[in-house]
Design goal:
The complex is a heterodimer.
Chain A (H helix, E strand, L loop, with lengths): L1 H12 L5 H34 L3 H36 L8 E11 L6 E4 L12 E3 L4 E8 L4 E5 L6 E6 L5 E5 L6 E4 L12 E4 L11 E8 L4 E5 L8 E5 L7 H11 L4
Antiparallel strand pairs in A: 1-2, 1-12, 2-5, 3-4, 3-12, 4-5, 6-7, 6-9, 7-8, 8-11, 9-10, 10-11
Chain B lengths: L6 H4 L1 H19 L14 H12 L6 H15 L5 H20 L4 H26 L7 H28 L1
Helix pairs in contact in B: 2-3, 2-4, 3-5, 3-7, 4-5, 5-6, 6-7
The chains are: A alpha+beta, B mainly alpha.
Chain lengths: ~270, ~170
């Protein structure tokens, strides 16, 4: 009990446990999770298939209509993309695409009720570094907070410790999207009298350098006098594969310390 | 039983069954089951297992084993180190002092005792998280997980009971 108290005291007031120890613990359990997670996914997929069997005809009709709409959108997007590239070339504007560090599989979830994090099966051997943003096909999911050799922990946007500088895409107003340890995020520090509507897209502002600009984070789901709630854009409930982006506008603390030591050999 | 050795070690594989079962359930807690990343709907299987084994075979789940499992669980879950250690050690303290009141009573009483103990431990964990993070921690997710954990006690304890009868 005394040791537990000391650990907690160090977490609260001291340096806490080095993240490398947690990363090693994750590396140890990752292969077991990798093996156990497969039958779990298979059973879940089977149950979903059984549950959805009755709606297949209706779903097919909806998907056909949606496919037609998406085809039109795709043509428009391709045309705009080509036009954008041409204008960038003319104006000599550098490209802003963020390179992909790794595509990883979600093998575990962490935190229980205290934190919102996931474990993925990509680590330093896959060029993943601390602070890298993590996305799925719909939007931002979070950022890497611990990196082991073969696994990493990702802090999700819904975690209480997650704060993302964002802007409302429609109006450009800047704010902070805060995690609540619940399903929804909360929009805070928004200038007074800003026009916000349900359905507005919230994207990263790029301020602070932790995330690249213009990545979809959430959509406004509820606007009240005292608070604005956001629904995360990423499919947080059904995560399978995620993309870890090699974006680091601000150098990692460990890299800075390392380069300082390299710059002063023996000093 | 070898003299001086703890029953957990001297009992061989059977003596280590409670520890290994609890560690296995700790790994299950990490799996992306159900609602995925929210994971609030995942009951605290380790707490259920520790309470069950302490109520039926207290010598096979000593303080060291509780602390060890709590330590590993803290590392795996990514929560402040010491949190689950305190919870599991407090659970052992609770069971050892209260076992005489509910041992041999029907399963409904044991279930109620577990629910009350879990409520106290979740309140303790809420206080610890608020102190460690220097802010008032949200109560709703904790209350939800306490409910899920309390309701899951019966089925999990049933499976652990079958396992105990089969192995011991």
């Amino acid at each position: 009990m005394v040791s537990a108290g000391i650990f907690l005291f160090l977490e609260a007031f001291g340096p806490g446990i080095p993240s490398q120890i947690r990363a090693v613990a994750n590396d140890v359990v990752a292969p077991v999770l990798y093996v156990l997670e497969r039958p779990v996914r298979a059973v879940q997929a089977g149950l979903e298939r059984l549950a959805g069997a009755g709606d297949i005809y209706l779903e097919n009709q909806n998907l056909r209509a949606r496919n037609e709409r998406l085809r039109q959108w795709r043509d428009a997007a391709l045309q705009l993309g080509r036009e954008n590239d041409r204008l960038r070339q003319i104006l000599k504007v550098p490209k802003r695409e963020v390179p992909l560090a790794a595509t990883a599989h979600v093998i575990g979830v962490g935190g229980g009720t205290f934190e919102r994090s996931i474990l993925v099966d990509a680590g330093s051997s896959d060029n993943v570094r601390r602070g890298f943003p993590v996305m799925d096909e719909s939007g931002l999911l979070g950022r890497v907070i611990q990196v082991g050799r073969w696994s990493s922990r990702v802090l999700l946007v819904t975690d209480l410790n997650s704060r993302i500088p964002v802007r409302i895409e429609r109006s450009g107003a800047l704010a902070i999207a805060e995690g609540q340890n619940e399903r929804f995020l909360r929009l805070r520090f928004l200038p007074r009298d800003t026009d916000v509507q349900v359905g507005d897209r919230i994207v990263t502002s790029g301020h602070g350098g932790a995330f690249p600009p213009n990545v979809l984070v959430a959509r406004v789901s509820e606007v009240e006098a005292d608070y604005i709630y956001l629904e995360p854009a990423g499919f947080l409930g059904t995560l399978d594969y995620v993309r870890i982006m090699a974006y680091r506008a601000v150098p990692d603390e460990s890299d800075v310390l390392l380069s300082d030591k390299e710059a002063k050999p023996g000093g | 039983m070898a003299k001086g050795l703890s029953p957990m070690v001297s009992g061989g594989a059977v003596g280590l069954l409670p520890l290994f079962t609890t560690l296995f359930l700790a790994i299950v807690m990490l799996l992306p089951i159900g609602s995925g990343v929210a994971n609030v709907t995942m009951p605290h299987l380790v707490l259920i297992s520790v309470f069950y084994w302490l109520s039926s075979r207290p010598l096979l789940m000593p303080y060291g084993a509780c602390a060890g499992v709590g330590f590993v669980l803290d590392l795996w879950l990514g929560v402040p180190l010491g949190l689950n250690m305190v919870l599991l050690l407090s659970a052992r303290l609770f069971v050892l002092t209260q076992l005489k009141h509910y041992k041999g009573r029907n399963k409904l009483v044991q279930w109620a005792v577990f629910a009350v103990m879990a409520l106290g431990l979740y309140a303790l964990s809420w206080a610890m998280m608020s102190v460690v993070n220097a802010r008032i921690w949200p109560i709703k997710p904790l209350a939800l997980q306490w409910l899920v954990t309390a309701f899951s006690y019966a089925p999990v304890a049933f499976f652990l009971g079958r396992l105990r009868r089969w192995a011991m």
